[in-house]
Amino acid sequence: MSLEKKVAIVTGASRGIGRAIALEFARQGCDIVFNYNKSVDAAEALAKELEALGRKTSFYQVDAADFTAVQAMVKDVKAKFGKIDILVNNAGITNDKLIVRMKEEDWDSVIDTNLKGAFNFCRAVSAIMLKQEDGRILNISSISGVVGMAGQVNYSASKAGLIGLTKALAKELGSRNVTVNALAPGIIETDMTGVLAEEYRQKLLEQIPVKRFGKVEEVSKVAAFLVSDDALYITGQVLQIDGGLAM
After folding, report:
1. Which residues contact 231 (CB under 8 A, 6 or more apart)?
2. Is residue 190 part of a domain?
3. Measured between alpha carbons, how far is 20 from 10 in angstroms, rounded to an integer?
4. In total, how many domains does the chain have?
5. Residue 2 included in any domain
6. Enclosing domain of residue 116
């Protein structure tokens, strides 16, 4: 399995799962382009790590929810690198509240970033991949989009929407050798889960058959497989990486 001489866009890669995916792809020979929204220091640090691995890299301060900005970014990437082989839609946010306390902006911000953001990037790269007659799109959904989570109606809806997007787009692009798949991670050790109260962490652990949270590397290695040529006959699938949480 190798991603040698491939060019990948990984959205929201400055931290967490996106960062791990960018680094794993780079270790396998892939040049990496990524966007970030706010954390310029984290973005610059990642770019240095990618360059240290001998990979070409470029990064953009672009809000995934901004259709026009995403179009401009993808156009620039194509001009600089000559092609786009892989897109990983990882950019995502949470704004958890019970629905009776959820404001309209709490809903809109999560849907815009997590779901519209993925649409924006898919829309921008699809024409390129269709013309190339080759491409891999991987959407990072969540176990919340598979089973739903109380207090996360906005997040669960956005991640469930990604699953629908994945399956529909796989049918649209498959005849041109473009595959579209999704990952549904469970509870993964990231900055996002690091703020959970200890009592809540223990309750979650009781529900996970393997009795631990996942590691970002366990997600990134599966991601690398799904965008590699070893997975050419896999499309429209949602692979759960959750330690058995949602069986």
Report:
1. 136, 179, 181, 225
2. yes
3. 10
4. 1
5. no
6. 7-241
Beta-carbon-side half-sphere exposure of residue 13 (alpha carbons within 13 Å): 31
CA distance 114 to 109: 8
pLDDT (tens digit, 9 = 90+) per residue, 58-102?
A: 999 999 999 999 999 999 999 999 999 999 999 999 999 999 999
Q: How far is CA 135 from the centre of its chain?
A: 16
> What CATH number does residue 35 fall under?
3.40.50.720
In a domain, 34, yes or no: yes
**pLDDT tens digits, 142-158:** 999 999 999 999 999 99
Q: Which of 36, 60, 155, 200 is an active site residue?
A: 155
The question of whether 155 is a catalytic residue gets the answer yes
